[in-house]
């Protein structure tokens, strides 16, 4: 299994490996699962590749597929298998998916299965523990030397100032570097330092889609964590994260969420003291910040329309201005939110916010949460 965040090169590596070892197999079967991602359709497609009749029963189809993998030495590539897993909605389909994964991994057959995934597959740790034939590779960004080679292949000479900083900014993500190269050449005449001086990050459409898909798969607690990390904009310890979490009854929720996010390559871990601290990978930070601003704007609009503060969710559980600091990054988030609200309400924005404050009166503190703090900070930005 090849794992890693969107754009890191999982599919490219699978293609290169397939090209190198294809002579060792009788047949090569490649299935990209981004679009047609149901397990039943996948099994039908694989059985058709073996010229076998499709079966109505999923478990029978799995057994039939394993039988074919035993008869012939095949290389089967399943690109983006995690997409199939995220379409599983009930226990029966979960059992079928788990049987499919365990069947491919644990049954003895002469074929080789290559899987790409943005995140660990369910039950994967158990499967790895049960089989010595299963291996997992997690891709990180390109090392500086390889990233510079990629940038040169895109048209840079290699002598431009700032190339190493550009590679570091994008964490060696191949897709991100390929996307930003023509933009720098077109808008900045190839001057990398001028682009870096803008102090911003451009995430291309394709990578934006991939990262948005990963974000949409997050659980409620995982989204809460990434929103806090986007607000802080710098590494934060577990202790500080727990301190500002509204009504945290079980700290393990944060621990498990951090572990899951790290396994998906969405986090970076830092060690400035004995205690680790965590922050978002820069491109993830960009996408999550945009999501945060959009949701906050939508919540204010819904409350303004309905007069019901139950629409406040993010603004109740998260303080957009980092608690206890004179925070520039927080001001930037508030400024982005102000811009979005100004586009909607114009000069009526101060009055709109003023009409929300009375809705908070006589409400229990836990119901209000950070709402009042956020509205006051936003109001102070515009008056």
Task: Give the structure's gist in a few sentences.
With 383 residues, the chain is α/β, with parallel strands linked by helices. It contains 20 helices and 8 strands.
DSSP helix fraction: 55-70%
Separate helix tally: 20
- Tell me the distance between the termini: 55 Å
CATH fold field value of the largest domain: Arc Repressor Mutant, subunit A
Number of strands: 8
Number of domains: 3
Strand arrangement in the largest pleated sheet: 2-3-4-1-5
Please identify the structural class as seen in this structure. Answer: alpha/beta
CATH top level of the largest domain? Mainly Alpha
Which series of helices and strands comes N to C?
EHEHHEHHEHEHHHHHHEHHEEHHHHHH
CATH architecture of the largest domain: Orthogonal Bundle
Q: What summary fits the major beta sheet? A: 5 strands, parallel
Overall mean pLDDT stands at 89
Q: Could you tell me the radius of gyration in angstroms?
A: 24 Å
Protein described:
By secondary structure, the chain is α/β, with parallel strands linked by helices. The protein folds into 3 domains: 2-138, Rossmann fold; 144-202, no CATH class; 203-383, Orthogonal Bundle (Arc Repressor Mutant, subunit A), CATH 1.10.10. Helices cover 57% and strands 8% of the residues. It contains 20 helices and 8 strands. The chain has a 5-stranded parallel β-sheet with strand order 2-3-4-1-5, with helices on both faces. A 3-stranded antiparallel β-sheet has the order 6-8-7. Helix 12 crosses helix 15. The longest helix is centred in the C-terminal third of the chain and has 25 residues, at 282-306. The protein is globular and about 75 Å long.
């Amino acid at each position: 299994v090849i794992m890693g965040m969107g754009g890191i090169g999982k599919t490219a590596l699978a293609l290169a490996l397939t090209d190198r070892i294809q002579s060792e197999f009788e047949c090569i079967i490649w299935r990209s699962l981004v679009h047609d991602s149901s397990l039943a359709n996948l099994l039908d497609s694989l059985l058709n590749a073996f010229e076998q009749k499709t079966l109505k029963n999923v478990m029978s189809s799995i057994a039939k597929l394993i039988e074919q993998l035993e008869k012939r030495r095949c290389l089967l590539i399943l690109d983006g298998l995690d997409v199939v897993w995220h379409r599983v909605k009930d226990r029966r389909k979960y059992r079928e998916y788990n049987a499919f994964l365990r069947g491919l991994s644990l049954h003895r057959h002469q074929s080789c299965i290559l899987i790409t995934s943005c995140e660990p597959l369910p039950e994967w740790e158990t499967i790895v523990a049960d089989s010595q034939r299963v291996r997992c590779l997690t891709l990180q960004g390109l090392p500086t030397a390889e990233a510079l080679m990629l940038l040169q292949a895109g048209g840079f000479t290699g002598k431009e100032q700032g190339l190493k900083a550009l590679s570091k900014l994008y964490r060696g993500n191949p897709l991100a570097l390929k996307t930003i190269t023509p933009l720098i050449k077109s808008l900045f005449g190839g001057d990398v330092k001028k682009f870096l001086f803008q102090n911003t990050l451009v995430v291309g459409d394709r990578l934006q889609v991939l990262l948005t898909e990963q974000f949409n798969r997050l659980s409620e607690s995982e989204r809460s964590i990434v929103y806090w990390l986007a607000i802080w904009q710098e590494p934060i310890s577990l202790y500080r994260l727990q301190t500002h979490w509204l009504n945290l009854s079980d700290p393990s929720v944060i621990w498990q969420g951090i572990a899951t996010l790290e396994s998906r390559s969405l986090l970076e871990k830092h060690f400035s003291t004995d205690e680790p601290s965590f922050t978002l990978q820069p491109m993830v930070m960009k996408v999550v910040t945009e999501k945060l601003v959009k949701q906050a704007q939508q919540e204010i609009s819904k409350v303004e329309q309905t007069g019901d503060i139950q629409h406040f969710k993010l603004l109740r559980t998260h303080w957009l201005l980092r608690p206890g600091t004179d925070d520039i990054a927080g001001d930037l988030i508030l400024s982005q939110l102000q811009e979005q609200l100004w586009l909607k309400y114009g000069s009526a924005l101060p009055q709109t916010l003023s009409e929300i404050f009375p809705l908070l009166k006589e409400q229990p503190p836990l119901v209000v949460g950070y709402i009042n703090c956020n509205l006051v900070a936003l109001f102070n930005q515009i008056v």
